[in-house]
Task: structure prediction
Amino acid sequence: MRTPHHTVTHPDTDACVAPDGDALDGVTPDGDASDGVASESGDEEPWAPPNHRRGGRRRRRGRFAGLPLALKAVVGLAVLAVLLTLADRWAVLYAEQRAAETLKDRMKLTAAPEVQIDGFPFLTQVVDERLESVRVTVPDVAADRVSLAKVSATARDVRLDTDGPTAVRGVRVPEMSGDVLLSFDDLNRELGASQVTFTGEGRDRIRARGRLPVAGQDLRLRAEARITRDGDRGIATEIGGMRLDIGDVATYRPGSGPSEGLHLTPESARRVARGTREARALLAVPELVRRLGVPDATVQAALRDDSELAALTGSPGFVRQAMRLNLFDLAAGNPELLSRLGLSPDLLDALSRLTRPVLSDRLSLGFQLPEPPQGELRLRDVRVERDGIRVTVSGEGLSVGSSGRG
Result:
């Protein structure tokens, strides 16, 4: 059963309320229900639900419009600063690319160098015609007989001679510092023809080991190089300890000293001492006998009697004396003995032409820094490192192009 609904008129408002206190919609104090019917005037519009979306948009626009003017200015300045920064970075990237292309063309490089312009903002530096710092890295630069693996230089307080931001007529560099790397990998490829390797031995020494083809034979090469400065713009190498081993037969040391020339190895000298035919052939050369220091009577007895020969060649001093003989002295009159030892006339002829200057030139690591058209470029330090020879350089008053305005 439904509970009857009773209305109560509030004494202050004359509104009809339900017993629970809620006003009844559409009920007048006189008890008449309007039921949404228009008034007698007929001017009221029909009821419709409110449009909350339209009102929300108006409120949001109202909030933005209500931002303080100072905050709007800050936002605008921030956007402008971002745009200017992007424009400045684009300009410096463009300038670095143009500089790299120009250096590649003027220096005839196989690859464009890496150019880095420091300092911010860049455009104000261009307007002022002065750059704080410019770093240039050039790979694979030809220098005399070798290639420089890497050349890095940093120029400071660079002065520009321009006709606008995109037209630079010249550059003047008051101060520059850098370093040059002469890689061992490049030396092995260019000088050693993949048969000689160079490795560091201390701060100023390099060891060369490998094989050198001579008269159709691969001779084992050993040499030491000392790296020194050559004036203000170059490095030189002093080659020492040069030695070519012809198997286990002989060792060639270029030069004219007592220990230089072509000499038997200890093993080869012992074979001569043990071999009757080789020993007799050796003792048959008067000049060699004189150098051995053996009395003529002893030599004659040894040539007549094998036991006397064995006694002579078996003495402790004979092998040492045989190793001191310069085999070039046997080349003219005893080709048979040399051939029996494994030394062909062609090899001896080629070795005789392979003098110390020739070998030194083939192993030389020296080079000269290019002389700039203006200013000075000096070599400050040379040191041997694990990966190669590193040279420190500095420059003053350098310029490229027209740099009349300082």
